[in-house]
Amino acid sequence: MFGRMFFIQALGATPGVLIAITIHEFFHGLSAYWCGDDTAKKAGRLSLNPIKHLDPIGTLTLIFFHFGWARPVPVNFWKFKHLKRDTVLVSIAGPLSNLVAGFVTEAIFIKTGFYQYARYSPLLFNIFPNMSASPYISYLADVTAWFILINYVLFIFNLIPVPPLDGAKVLMAFLPSKYMNWMLKYEMYGTIILLVLIFFGIVNVILNPALVWVLNVTARLFAM
What pTM did the predictor assign? Predict the structure, then answer.
């Protein structure tokens, strides 16, 4: 499990995950601030410093299992100017920021030909590495490839409508207020359900086909 390839992948994936989750949480906090909630700002979470967003357990699982999460930005939904509308905007801001980050980075990655230097790219590209490239250039290309992939993973994963994921909060905004309060109250049990779904591989049944579809669509777009 912890062979040479594991550590190569961990070295490539870790910077991408740190940056991607920071972008995700920062835009949650920024959009909440724009909607009238200054909770994240007062907590010092309107920051692009990854340290402010790290979760200890999520960081460990990231290092050892290539799957992790950030410490959620605190949001007080009751401070929003328009509760349901702003709940949707703030909830969708994180996943959309990852989609845009992945899309823009992938466009540059392919159009510049930089992808050719990635030796251990996880993306669905036909790569012929230029072995004359310096190891530093190859490592940077590997990190970029992982960053693209991780952003797409976060985009898709967070839209799954299971608390505490963003997809559940979007769903809540379209429910009557009494059900919205109920979901907020029992959100902690959603975390347990989510972990069970991850453990038994059910999340992968949703995530993997969606990820392949996104990568195929974007690869065709940028190859035109």
Answer: 0.87
